[in-house]
Specification:
Elements: E1 5-6, E2 12-15, E3 21-27, E4 31-37, E5 42-48, H1 64-77, E6 86-91, H2 107-121, E7 125-132, E8 137-142, E9 146-151, E10 155-161, E11 171-175
Parallel strand pairs: 1-3, 6-7, 7-11
Antiparallel strand pairs: 2-5, 3-8, 4-5, 4-6, 8-9, 9-10
Helix pairs in contact: 1-2
Length: about 180
């Protein structure tokens, strides 16, 4: 196996190396968007921090409305076809309790809504997700299509394998 490729906040990274792995550590309210084209052998991971750029263009990987189009563009530059790209999501937690008085602070929920809307606008095939709840997550996305999610209290588990043919439905898991 090759050295893991770390995907920090507001970053988008692509991997085509056999045996490669993309890693997003500490996804709290952030969302890790894993996108994969098995035929092209290309995996991409975006570490989205906020839902909307408001027109800001300096750090497009930071926002759902700019990161997802850029992720798909980078995948296509490596030979992926938008029709073959499959997606899995993790993150969007509410780590801090604000007594429910200000929904503006519910970044995790707002990120989930924005990411799902952007994927819907692209007709992207969402295969699996592990979203919401109140614990952070770490995602390992292998170039085989396998995605594992590790969280405190739940350990590590396989979220999906985006290389498995026939998964054309959204198998959504939203944490309580």
């Amino acid at each position: 196996m090759t050295e893991p490729i770390m995907v920090g906040m507001a970053e988008i990274k692509i991997c085509t190396t056999p045996g490669g792995v993309l890693v997003a550590l500490g996804l709290g309210s952030c969302i890790g968007v894993c996108a994969f084209d098995a035929s092209a052998g290309v995996a991409g991971l975006a570490h989205i921090v906020l839902p909307n750029s408001g027109g800001q263009t300096i750090t497009p990987g930071k926002f759902a409305d700019t990161a997802i189009p850029l992720l798909f563009e980078k995948l296509q530059q490596e030979g992926a076809s938008p029709k073959r790209i499959r997606v899995a999501l993790a993150g969007g937690a509410q780590l801090f309790n604000y007594n429910g008085t200000n929904t503006r602070l519910e970044i995790g929920a707002r990120n989930i809504e924005a990411v799902r809307a952007e994927l819907h606008n692209r007709n992207a095939r969402l295969i699996a997700s592990d979203l919401g709840g109140n614990t952070g997550r770490t995602v390992h996305f292998y170039t085989t299509g396998k995605i594992t999610v590790k969280s405190i209290g739940q350990g590590e588990r396989e979220l999906a394998n985006l290389a498995i043919p026939g998964l054309d439905f959204a198998s959504l898991r939203v944490a309580a």
